[in-house]
Amino acid sequence: MAGVKDTTDKTQKLFDTDPVILKGLESAQRLVTDVDRVVFARVGDANCHGYTHARLVWMVCLARVPEGMAYVGHSFPWEDLVVTLNNMLLTSDRFDTIEQEVFMQPQVDRKAEEEERIRTIQQQQQQRQQAAASGVY
After folding, report:
1. Nearest 5°: CA angle at 93, between 42 and 48?
2. Does a structural domain hold residue 134?
């Protein structure tokens, strides 16, 4: 526990030396926390999953910097995040992707499939146009 206290003391000394930095960071942190609360309150809205993912990635990165985590950890809406994540878990039908040991596997390249579909649609349109031009329906 001494390491955490030492880190917090160092962070506090940094912010104590420049009140302008502290004021700017406090305003920015309040804004981010308010946005987090709004997004996390939309429990069940799949449109918020990307934001939630991005915030979790940011918090994982920030956790590697104890001084930063000491500053933002206290204002992050952890309870709202837990409700959001629990709801995501309840509505998920694919636990295999959640429980994988490998994080962030690359997706299959679907470009060839899409290009084939586009070619098929174009061929069908050309056939219809030719049939309409020749009077055959």
Report:
1. 20
2. no
Number of domains forming the structure of the chain = 1
> Is 8 a member of any domain?
yes
Question: Hey, what are 23's tokens?
Answer: 């004021």
- Give domain status of residue 112, yes or no: no
| Cβ–Cβ under 8 Å, residues 84 and 46 | no
- What's the DSSP call for residue 89? H
Q: Domain for residue 131, yes or no? A: no
Q: Comparing 49-53, 68-72, 74-78, which segment has the lowest mean pLDDT?
A: 68-72
Higher pLDDT, 113 or 86: 86
pLDDT category of residue 104 using cuts at 50, 70 and 90 = low
Dist. CA 56–CA 49, nearest whole Å: 10
Beta-carbon contacts of 24 under 8 Å, excluding residues fewer than 6 positions away, are none
The residue segments making up the domain with residue 60 are: 2-93
What's the CA gap between 51 and 43, in Å, rounded?
13
Total-model pTM: 0.56
Residue 128 has pLDDT above 70, yes or no: yes
